[in-house]
Known about the structure:
Domain Gcp-like: 36-141
Radius of gyration: 18 Å
GO biological process, one term: tRNA threonylcarbamoyladenosine modification
GO molecular function: transferase activity
Strand content: 25-35%
Number of helices: 7
Organism: Micromonospora radicis
Order of helices and strands: EEEHEHEHEEEHEHHEH
Shape: globular
Strand order of the largest sheet: 3-2-1-4-5
Amino acid sequence: MLVLVVDSSTPAVTAALVEVTADGVTSRAQRSTVDARAHGELLAPQVDGVLAEVGARPAELGAIVAGLGPGPFTGLRVGLVTAATMSQVLDIPAYGVCSLDGIGHPAAAGEPVLAASDARRREVYWAVYDGAGQRLVGPEVGAPSVAAERARELAVTVAVGDGAHRYADVLGLPLRAEPRYPDPHALAVLAAERIRAGAPGDPLTPLYLRRPDAVAATARKPVLP
Length: 225
């Protein structure tokens, strides 16, 4: 089954096509551009690009996988709205996966790992995974020092993700170079069981974890004469 994967939870805007079969998940095409200010402009052309690369039409898709975050409000909703809209138009299921799982799961190699992405405001979105890539704690948002303390309590030995690189001095852990951002192949692998089973799609509820940076005014401002 041909499956589209999208993630816009980080500055990396990603679209990919994978083939999900009874034997596994095979990557077919991928586009990823790091630009924190252009999620809306980048994602749709990238979806078109991966489809064109394999000579497929949207109608040939069997499912969609979307990274649910955590991530900043504006960027994250681009991927989720795209996935939800295509799911409805094409009448195919969409499955959500925590975006941090797309960093921590493939990075785990027999030892606990801290996955972290940049949450701005000098904070990180983070989660801890065991040696098999199963999430133990999180996702959470907070100061890197808080993530570091929790990681020490769980005997974490390595960190991964853009947030881990950005705050490496605070975390005090060896770094894995990749994946720096959510890996679309890993997101597909984590949704593959549901895809193969033909499970109902998810509501794609975003993991914002906190209020958006910009909020609408709740009261009228006084006007001076």
